[in-house]
Amino acid sequence: MITDILKASVAASAIRLATPYIFASLGETFGQRSGVLNLGVDGIMLLGAFAAYYAVFETGNLLLGVLAALIVGMLLGLAMAFISVTLQAEQGISGIGLYLFGLGLSELLFQKTVVTPTPIDGFPRVNLPILTDLPVLGEIFFHHNLLVYIAFALVPISAFVLNRTTFGLQIRAVGQNPEAADAMGISVARVRYMTVTIGGGFAGLAGASLSIALLNIFQSNLTAGQGFIAVALVYFGAWRPYWVMGGALLFSTVNALQLQVKTIENALGINVPSEFAVMAPYVVTIITLIFASKRVEQPTALTKPFERGES
Amino acid sequence: MAIVRRFLNTSKLVNISLNITLLLLAVGAALLVGSVMIMLMDADPIKAYQALYEGAFGTTNSRAETLVKATPLLFVGIGICVAFRGGVINVGGEGQMIIGALAGVWIALSLDTVPRFIENVPINDFPQITVVTLSLLAGFLAGALWGGIAGVLKAYFGVNEILSTIMLNQIALQLMNYLLNGVLLDPEQKDRVNRIPKTARIEEHAKLPRIDWFSDTPTRLHAGLIVGLALAVVVYILLWRTTLGYRIRAVGQSDRASRYAGINVKRQVLYSILISGGCAGLAGAVQVIGLQYRLQTDGSAAGFTGNAGFNGIVAALFGGLHPVGTIPASVFFGALLIGAQSIQREVQVPASLITTLNGLVVIFVVSTQIFTKRLTKRRASVPPQPTPATPKSLPALQEEAAK
User: Fold this and answer.
1) Is A301 among the domain residues?
2) Per-residue pLDDT tens for B175-221?
3) Do B166 and A228 touch (CB under 8 A)?
4) Cα separation of B309 and B269, whole Å?
5) CA neighbours closer than 13 Å in the CB half-sphere of residue A142
């Protein structure tokens, strides 16, 4: 797999590596637009990744793997909704709790079932008629596994749902002004339960895209903090699906470049310490957040629990 | 008057005992979930928890190891108390620990190897107390600086501190990897083909002394624990007996009310994360000069911190966000982490069970806070206010959005 990525062009692997970010941060966008910050995405991703990996490891059925990750993710999303909506717990801290829970449990289950990281047959690349055979473009855009296409397809779908449907309007109303939404007869709790559960499902898929499509393996802390990046990407992308996708591509491009840092060094004759290459997207994100926070309004009710008759 | 005062006192007592009950319930619930998980893995929960207890407290050495494990949690946890009390969610403990460790080890090493700062003073004449104090100070300052970046970004640029501290964790990690492969690399490793990224070992007089007066056999318990205990008291005094602490807590309670009271909110935000980052930085420096005697990386943050940056949050929450309460809480979680290894040995349940339970404890603790909130509100005996019928004005909404 590693050599596979190295052989492919940077652009192609950047698109591929963007998959987990896109899944996770699109899901997080739904939750945050409705006013709930779920910081436990990384924990959900880890458990989703394990569920998918284990299902495929046992049955070899890839669809079953996706389904397992989706269900596990939605259940954890539901739990997070209960914690942050019904119990009104501080969202940043309970998210850290969910992260630790997922980190520990996924490793625990792995050590109790599979023990050693064993590669599995994940999603194969799809060969599209004509398109895949296009020179250069074919390799970059039309030679990926199914989950990559699903992730990118979800971007316009999410934008449509958020901006053009009644449900999307309810989500934005609940996130912007829960008191008014409540007065209009929208159940704030119901909308938030739905968005956070959807977000959990997406995070589960993000995990699956790592364990049964990109890396085809599971090990302890497989995500290495990608879920936290996904949360940051939502701020980075100013709660808009297309911008979020742009942020995901930025991160994945740097990841892809980093994999080929030696090749690039040889080609250009410059010597960049790989640590700085890895550091770069984080620095870029911080700088973007500085500018974004001045110009873009975040959902007013973000991280604020809603209770009738308060404030 | 007397009746009122007595009422206030009892209500405070009731509150504290309620809080403690809820915390114990949270742990009880987590351990209960743990038992179910252990049973699902075909092991005996009673045996498992027995192994945990024995592993953590059974021998002199295990008790010492528990305290060694608790020390970084205590430092980070004390810092978290300040930050959370000030309304700043600092989740950058990992990065602040790393930067603190880098600064601490740099001072400890450079007083030996780098050209002498002062003419005619042979290195070994630097007394241990000077070198150690300088290292710890450097660790505190560096951690404070690293936290301060997030503080400035939050106070003056409106950047969410949760996000910036997470980013800064990653940046700190890469900085450590870079420095340990470069300028800080052990000279012995330089010529090797497969280098291990680690610094040279620090000299005797740069080490925090071990505490060995309580047992005949040597343990790894070191004076860092005493520094931590002292810090807990200092931070307690700072938070509840000084103006600075009062202001920090006021801002944490309500930044709007604080602003009307004439408190410079931005500055308090910055102060609270500076102190918080400093405490985490101290944790890193103490790990290096008290325990490991060198800084070494396996490429991940947890490889050095052992997740103390996150587990310190757990300890602080469990200690009721009170520096002194964080002391027993840290020992408790230190014991869990040490005991986890014996669980793995004795009943073949992976040690990651404890990480899982830690996560549950956090969730349970923050989830039960609603009950204390409800209860205190009822007791406050304020007649229910009618909900304002008019929606908020546009400027008010914008102001909230800008926060």
Assistant:
1) no
2) 999 999 888 888 888 778 778 888 989 888 889 999 887 777 889 99
3) yes
4) 20
5) 12
- Tell me the ipTM for this assembly: 0.88
Pairwise CB contact (< 8 Å): A104 & B391: no
Instruction: Let me know if residue A129 belongs to a domain.
Output: no
CATH of domain B60-347: 1.10.3470
- Show me where the domains of chain B are located: 1-43+355-379, 60-347
Q: What is the pTM (predicted TM-score) of this model?
A: 0.86
A285–B391 CB contact, under 8 Å: no
The values of phi and psi at residue B200, to 5°, are: -65, 165
Angle ∠(A77,A83,A89) on CA atoms, nearest 5: 135
By Cβ distance, the residue of A100, A225, A228 closest to B362 is A100
Residue B237 has pLDDT above 90, yes or no: yes
Nearest chain B Cα distance for residue A82, angstroms:
10
Contact assignment for B159 to A290 by CB distance below 8 Å? yes
Rg (CA), chain B: 23
Establish if A47 belongs to a structural domain: yes
DSSP secondary structure letter of residue A279: H
* Contact residues, chain A, for B401 at CB < 8 Å: 297-298, 300
A289/B178 CB distance under 8 A: no
Between these two residues, B11 and A199, which has the higher pLDDT value?
A199
